[in-house]
């Protein structure tokens, strides 16, 4: 077979950050990962990756979300995605990636995972390796637990490490206000903190361990499209650990509720706090009040699509 010839023009792909509407964390396995039962919703914070065929591999990062703290070497998940696709397909050339970020870095919203999903799709198009979607999904799962969801988008139940996805249905749109933190948080550190907390409280001793399920009421609330019903069902097992690392996040949650949000939860492993609001208008008010109090606050909505090539 002749090797595919790369496209002579760049390919631009957009993927989005996510909020975990439910994050149930089970036992830690030998590979260091925890069993999860989670529900993801992609929200309107775009990451854009532009891929241009090149002899070697290089990356540049820009955007509003502290791009200075993003590594530009093989620790970068978009770069790892490109190299993984090249080795999986036997493609012999390289790529220059330009990543434009708006998801907060190390914020618990899957920004790095969105970059990886976008880079996979962009390289697959620019190199004309044209992998079937199932194969891209498989490579995504090798890059990180949240990468398959960033590829798929919308709303999905995630089991396994969070990488085994079943799409979920929802009516309408949900409006969120995100409060960002200046300091990011390390995801492995927050999971480790949860394990310690459960150890101290004797919560790891269950035998057999409690079953991990997504509450049916949450899926019903999504179907109803009613934010008040969804607000009542939001849950994050990592929140207790994130609050132990960063007790100030409780103040953020309290401020958001006082500003009129229906409910506030730590997003993923934090430190971003996500506030569900009753309507777009309410969300704009909550954002303005929080920003007026000196918080960095953004109004976003979900669900939005997964990784897509832009015309
Ligand atoms: O897969 P990803 O690189 O996003 O995961 C980052 C870290 O989060 C892992 O190294 C692990 O410490 C933790 N994690 C976990 N269980 C999961 C997903 C992530 O313990 N299911």
Describe what you observe in this structure:
This protein is an alpha+beta fold. It is 34% helix and 29% strand. The protein has helices at 77-89, 111-126, 133-143, 147-152, 187-200, 216-224, 227-233, 239-245, 248-258, 280-292; strands at residues 11-28, 34-54, 57-63, 94-101, 155-159, 164-167, 174-180, 235-236, 263-266, 273-277, 296-302, 308-309. Strand 9 (263-266) and strand 10 form a beta hairpin. The longest helix has 16 residues, at 111-126. The chain is globular and about 60 Å long. The two termini are 29 Å apart. The mean pLDDT is 94. It binds cytidine-5'-monophosphate. Cytidine-5'-monophosphate binds at residues 32-34, 36, 144-146, 161-162, 187-188, 191.
Write a brief structural summary.
The protein has ten helices and twelve strands. The relative contact order is 0.19.
């Amino acid at each position: 077979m002749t090797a595919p010839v790369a496209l002579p023009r760049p390919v631009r792909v957009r993927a989005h950050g996510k909020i975990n509407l439910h994050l149930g964390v089970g036992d830690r396995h030998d590979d260091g990962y925890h069993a999860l039962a989670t529900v993801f919703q992609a929200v309107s914070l775009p990451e854009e990756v532009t891929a241009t065929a090149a002899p070697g591999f290089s990356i540049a990062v820009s955007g509003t979300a502290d791009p200075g703290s993003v590594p530009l070497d093989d620790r970068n998940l978009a770069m790892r995605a490109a190299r993984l696709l090249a080795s999986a397909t036997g493609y012999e050339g390289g790529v220059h990636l330009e990543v434009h970020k708006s998801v907060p870095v190390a914020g618990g919203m899957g920004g790095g995972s969105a970059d990886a999903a976008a880079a996979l799709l962009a390289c697959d198009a620019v190199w004309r390796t044209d992998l079937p979607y199932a194969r891209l999904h498989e490579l995504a799962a090798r890059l990180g637990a949240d990468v398959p969801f960033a590829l798929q988008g919308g709303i999905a139940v995630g089991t396994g490490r969070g990488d085994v996805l079943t799409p979920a249905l929802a009516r309408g749109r949900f409006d969120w206000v995100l409060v960002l933190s200046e300091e990011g948080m390390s995801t492995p550190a927050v999971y480790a903190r949860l394990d310690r907390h459960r150890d101290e409280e004797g919560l790891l001793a269950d035998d057999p361990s409690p079953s991990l399920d997504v509450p049916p009421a949450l899926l019903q609330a999504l179907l109803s499209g009613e934010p008040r019903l969804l607000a009542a069902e939001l849950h994050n097992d990592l929140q207790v650990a994130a609050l132990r690392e960063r007790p100030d996040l409780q103040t953020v949650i309290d401020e958001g509720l006082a500003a009129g949000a229906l409910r506030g939860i730590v997003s993923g492993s934090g430190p971003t706090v996500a506030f569900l609001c009753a309507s777009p208008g309410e969300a704009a008010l909550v954002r303005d009040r929080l920003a007026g109090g000196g918080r960095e606050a953004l109004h976003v909505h979900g669900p939005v699509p997964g990784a897509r090539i832009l015309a």
